TrEMBL record:
PANTHER family xref list: ENDONUCLEASE V (PTHR28511)
HAMAP family reported in the protein's UniProt record: Endonuclease_5
Organism phylogeny: Bacteria, Pseudomonadati, Bacteroidota, Chitinophagia, Chitinophagales
Gene name of the encoded protein: nfi
Catalytic activities: Endonucleolytic cleavage at apurinic or apyrimidinic sites to products with a 5'-phosphate
Top EC category: hydrolase
Residue(s) at site: Interaction with target DNA: Y429
Biological source species: Chitinophaga agrisoli
GO CC annotations on file: cytoplasm
Name used for this protein in its record: Endonuclease V
Keywords annotated in UniProt: Cytoplasm, DNA damage, DNA repair, Endonuclease, Hydrolase, Magnesium, Metal-binding, Nuclease
Length: 584
DNA sequence: GCGACAG
DNA sequence: ATCTTGTCGC
């Protein structure tokens, strides 16, 4: 009767519900047209299991499922909520990748989503905040099945399969215009200029002649500034004015000559719209209250600040942290704030733009999602014979990074194969996000490797990691290869010192629980122990014995040592080849 | 609020 | 991780 009634469509995913549909009370399904409309509205391909769900419950989900707000009339609200969390970014862009996150319901304050990656019955995740994402159920059907079995209203206590923690510095800076409500105009201008600098760095426009405008902008925060003159000077240098069709006219321009005008033209032409718009917005903040004085919170400059923040978000740009600006309250100097310099900001924690830092939230989300794919038991057909080692080398004077993977025969330590790759770094070093820094050259080296190993020992932790997803896990899961994490120092967890003799070990325990996340292994007698943990497809005792087996004369396993050698060699070779090619 | 934080 | 010199203990 209902248009949502299924016709001949097979609905295999919720067979288990068909004989108890009356328990749900009032239910109604979606039509195929509605489902198609959702897909086009959200620009994604919905998984089959979810479509089946919609065919049954898409319009009315009955009292059992009602608290989850999973009917289609809620979808836009879910999306809006996520959008708010991310302040302007599209919710399905959160997880970066090519896949899109689809937010289909909620539990209390937490949003439920799956990733549209082509999987017919995808895993379900819970998002409490952008950087706090947990795997919840292994599939959508299982999610429905298990939720219906729960008696409790909202069984929050067992939401989390494993605790997800992250270092505070991993979290992206979240700043809203409202945060500047009580801060001086000088602080607002300075924040805008900092955003401008971040944008310049992000678009790799540092080489342009920013000296034409940046120092002048910064002069606003100095004690010598005359804001009226500053406004006049900046107005003449506005990108819109310089790039307009009107030719240079000495009568209109008081503050610079023709050659400066031409240089400015060149600058803004090579710049881009976003950066030029930021300059304009900074100008507006600086001049808005010029004649009226600063009233209360100066709502209009907050408005421009909001535009700046939105522009930054639209371009996926990290925002400067707000801490350094907090020291300039709106109560000082009639709202303008006391003067300061860029150095004052640096001393208070302002970090210059680093375009590599903009993706931390995405990286954390990936880890929370990928960690459930880690297999923590032995999963290999035969005892591993060809053991790979991996290490990465850096160069202090450039942004070069060289990765090496070496394959050794387990007992003889013969080098069976090796491969290296040198490239530019693509990610900064952030404890907890290490794999995003070292994986790219390692994966490139892996591609070149003529003989693939049975197992890989990585120079970094596996599950001995705040989100249980260190470098070794990332490598293992990515390559679908048994992997061991072997770190030199602790990242997280606590332990008792193992006995002094080679081979002694003690468990590495997770912070705040008794979960064993690794082994502290004495690899040489009375030498500092090393940290072994599961990477992928191997258990901790097997991992420990394999690592111990590879530790012959030194503290570190031969795999790591030899990989280190090859990586260093590759770096030197690359630099030498590059030098001769460049020096005229 | 402060310290801790793989390579 | 990087650079680089010196020192300690076997
Ligand atoms: Mg290393």
């Amino acid at each position: 009767m209902n248009a949502g009634r299924r016709n001949n469509t097979v609905m295999p995913y919720f067979d288990f519900l068909l004989d108890r549909l009356e328990d749900f009370g009032e239910i109604a399904g979606c039509t195929e047209e509605e489902i198609t409309a959702i897909e086009s509205q959200f620009q994604l391909q919905l998984p089959e299991a979810y479509k089946d769900f919609l065919r049954l419950f898409g319009r009315e989900s009955g009292h059992l499922l009602e608290p989850y707000a999973m009917t289609i009339d809620n979808l836009q609200a879910h999306k809006d909520e996520v959008t708010d969390m991310y302040e302007g970014t599209e919710p399905y862009d959160i997880l970066n990748f090519s896949q899109k996150g689809f937010f289909f319901g909620h539990m209390d304050d937490m949003l439920l989503f799956f990733i549209c990656n082509g999987d017919d019955d995808p895993a379900v995740y819970l998002m409490e905040a952008p950087e706090d994402i947990n795997a919840y159920e292994s599939s959508f059907t299982r999610f429905i099945e298990l939720e219906l079995q729960r008696d409790e209203e909202f069984p929050i206590s067992h939401f989390l399969h494993s605790p997800v923690v992250f270092f505070a510095q991993d979290a992206p800076s979240i700043v809203t215009a409202g945060d500047f409500k009580d801060l001086a105009i000088r602080a607002r201008v300075a924040f805008g200029i900092c955003c401008l600098e971040y944008a310049i760095s992000h678009f790799q426009l540092e080489e342009l002649n920013w000296a034409l405008i940046l120092p002048l902008l910064w002069s606003y925060t100095a004690d010598t500034v005359n804001t009226a003159i500053w406004g006049d000077q900046i107005a003449e240098r506005m990108p819109s004015a310089i790039l307009s069709d009107y030719p240079f006219d000495r009568k209109d321009i008081m503050w610079f000559e023709l050659d400066t005008y031409e240089q400015l033209q060149q600058l803004y032409r090579q710049s881009n719209e976003t950066v030029n718009e930021l300059i304009y917005l900074v100008f507006r903040i600086g001049t808005q209250d010029l004649h009226t004085g600063v009233s209360r919170h100066s709502a209009q400059t907050l408005n421009y600040l909001q535009k700046i923040i939105r522009l930054m978000h639209e371009n996926r740009l990290e925002l400067p942290v707000i801490t350094p600006f907090r020291q300039y309250p709106i109560t000082e100097y009639n709202g303008w704030g006391r003067p300061f310099t860029r150095e004052d900001l640096s001393n208070a924690g302002y970090k210059p733009a680093n375009n590599l830092w903009s993706t931390t939230a995405t990286a954390i989300a990936q880890q929370a999602i990928l960690t459930q794919q880690v297999i923590r038991y032995n999963d290999f057909p035969a005892p591993p014979v060809f053991i790979a080692g991996a290490d990465v080398e850096y160069d202090k004077y450039s942004d070069l990074i060289a990765g090496a993977i070496v394959v050794l025969e387990r007992s003889t330590l013969q080098v069976v194969a090796y491969a290296t790759h040198c490239m530019q770094v693509t990610f900064p070093y952030i404890p907890g996000l290490f794999s995003f820094r070292e994986m790219p050259p390692l994966l490139a080296a892996w591609e070149k490797l003529s003989q693939k190993p049975d197992l890989i020992i990585c120079d970094g932790h596996g599950i001995a990691h705040p989100r249980r997803f260190g470098l070794a896990c990332h490598m293992g899961v990515t390559l679908n290869l048994p992997a061991i994490g072997c770190g030199k120092t602790r990242l997280c967890g606590h332990y008792a010192m193992p006995a002094g003799e080679k081979g002694a070990s003690s468990p590495l325990l997770a912070d705040g629980s008794d979960e064993v996340i690794g082994a502290v292994l004495r690899s040489q007698t009375r030498i500092n122990p090393i940290f072994v943990s599961i990477g992928h497809k191997i258990d901790i005792s097997t991992a420990t014995s394999v690592v111990l087996d590879m530790c012959r004369e030194f503290r570190l396993p031969e795999t790591t040592r030899i990989a280190d050698q090859y990586a260093r060699e590759a770096m030197e070779a690359y630099k030498a080849a590059h030098d001769t090619g460049q020096s005229h």
